[in-house]
Amino acid sequence: MKNNFSRKFALFSLTMLLEIAVINAFAGRLTAQPSSTLFNPEIIESGEVVGEKVNFKPPKVGAPENRKGGASRGLNCSQSQKSLKALLPASNLGLTVEQYPTFFVYVPPISTQLAEFELREGNDSTVVYKTRFKLPATPGVVNFSLPPNKTLQPLEVGKNYKWSFSIICDSEDRSKDLFVEGWVQRIEPSLTLTSQVEKAKPRDRPALYAESGIWHETLMTLAELRYSYPQDSTLVAEWTELLESVGLNNIAQEPLVPNSKNDQANK
């Protein structure tokens, strides 16, 4: 009987040990899962994107004139307390690596849709490019790009260009224009940055440009992501933080007007 009991006890102990081993192994798998799957930063909810935080570092260059709010030459067509504003750092100069960069402007509610853009070389009176186009009916942040065509030479590296954006309230009396001015300078990107951007996912490119102090492409790449993922709260938050970091708090949460081709009326 004693031998019978010993055999049964040994069998019971072996069964218990096997169960404990299985439980421990399963628990180990559950413990390891969060770091590899549940908390993997690349695995996110549908419609959201994850990438490096956009932290703009202003370059050690400045424009001949500091940033100012939207000015007016007289009574204008604005229907809001907010003014027309160029999306630029406090220095009023944005660096770009593009031959034909994209510009961003906040347009408040207005009673007209006719706008004019003008580009000059430095403080020179020579106009490099000039065009008129219709604005979207919706107020908010709009963008427009220099056209890569034979009538406009690419921006020269290292040269400052002064640009102005005007809302034409009365085409017969330009003294009523609402306008802003800013500066742009094209630079050659480093080989390191070029390589990093080429290899990076679209979601990581704004952070790379921001780290290098390249304003125009920081805005453009982040705006393109927002156009692609309009419901992504992370992108909205990063756009807001970026604008607030350069003192554009009062327009940081204004809507980004969907991209559309400029209806050019005059060149």
Number of domains: 2
| Percentage beta strand | 15-25%
Counted by DSSP, the helix tally is 5
The biggest sheet amounts to:
7 strands, mixed
**Overall shape:** globular
Terminal CA distance reads 108 Å
CATH fold-level name of the largest domain: Immunoglobulin-like
Fraction of helical residues:
25-40%
Organism: Komarekiella delphini-convector SJRDD-AB1
Protein name: DUF928 domain-containing protein
Pfam families: DUF928
InterPro entries: DUF928
Question: Layout of helices and strands, plus pairs?
Answer:
Layout lengths: L1 H37 L32 E2 L12 E2 L6 E4 L5 E6 L6 E8 L5 E8 L5 E6 L14 E8 L10 E9 L4 H9 L5 H7 L3 H14 L4 H13 L17 E4 L1
Parallel strand pairs: 3-9
Antiparallel strand pairs: 1-9, 2-4, 4-7, 5-6, 5-8, 6-10, 8-9
Helix pairs in contact: 3-4
Keywords: Signal
Protein name: DUF928 domain-containing protein
Pfam families: DUF928
Short characterization:
30% of the residues lie in helices and 21% in strands. The protein is an alpha+beta fold and 267 residues long.
Structural notes for this entry:
- Helices cover 30% and strands 21% of the residues.
- The protein has 267 residues and is an alpha+beta fold.
- Strands 1, 3, 5, 6, 8, 9 and 10 form a 7-stranded mixed sheet that branches. It has a 3-stranded antiparallel sheet with strand order 2-4-7, covered by helices on one side.
- A hairpin with a 5-residue loop joins strand 5 and strand 6.
- The protein is globular and about 50 Å long.
- The model is unreliable at 8-46 and 261-267 (pLDDT under 50).
- InterPro entries: DUF928 (IPR010328).
- This is DUF928 domain-containing protein.
